């Protein structure tokens, strides 16, 4: 039986709640957002966080993260931040951004060379940064922005 026929029949026989449930079920739910992330480096010369998109809708966002490095493990940190990247508090001794000054949402700790990881987080609208905070990596370019919109 066609769904529309079934709905009409359920409504006719007085099973309106069941009909309503079918109608609601037929409306596609808003797809969750997915971002493909590539962590890349040329050894300790330069490093990048490349994203398949720079803007997503608020809600559940899944990051599919691949470390394309041949030699280095990287991490992937999601943090809320409205500050320009150059103004983030940096610890010269540890060679890392002060994570205590960041609103870290979640992270994938070690992704070995050639490996992948997945992280799903619920994000409110706002500005976020995606970075690797292993010693020296941030300063070598391992950071990017993503905007989360309503
Ligand atoms: Cu790194």
UniProtKB/TrEMBL annotation:
Name of the protein in question: Copper resistance protein
Signal peptide: 1-31
Highest rank taxon of the organism: Bacteria
MF-aspect GO terms: copper ion binding; electron transfer activity
Blue (type 1) copper domain ranges (all copies): 45-148
UniProt KW keywords: Copper, Metal-binding, Signal
Organism: Mesorhizobium tamadayense
Membrane-spanning segments: none
């Amino acid at each position: 039986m066609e769904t529309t026929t079934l709905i009409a029949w359920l409504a006719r026989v007085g099973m309106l709640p069941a009909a309503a449930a079918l109608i609601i079920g037929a409306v596609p739910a808003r797809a969750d957002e997915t971002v493909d992330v590539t962590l890349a480096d040329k050894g300790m010369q330069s490093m990048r966080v490349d994203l398949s998109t720079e803007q997503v809708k608020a809600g559940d966002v899944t990051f599919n993260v691949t470390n394309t490095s041949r030699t280095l493990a990287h991490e992937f940190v999601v943090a809320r931040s409205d500050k320009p990247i150059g103004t983030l508090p940096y610890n010269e001794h540890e060679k890392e951004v002060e994570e205590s000054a960041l609103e870290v949402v979640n992270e994938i700790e070690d992704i070995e060379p050639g490996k992948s990881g997945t992280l799903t987080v619920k994000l409110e609208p706002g500005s976020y940064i995606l970075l690797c905070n292993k010693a020296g990596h941030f300063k070598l370019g391992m950071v990017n922005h993503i905007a989360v919109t309503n």
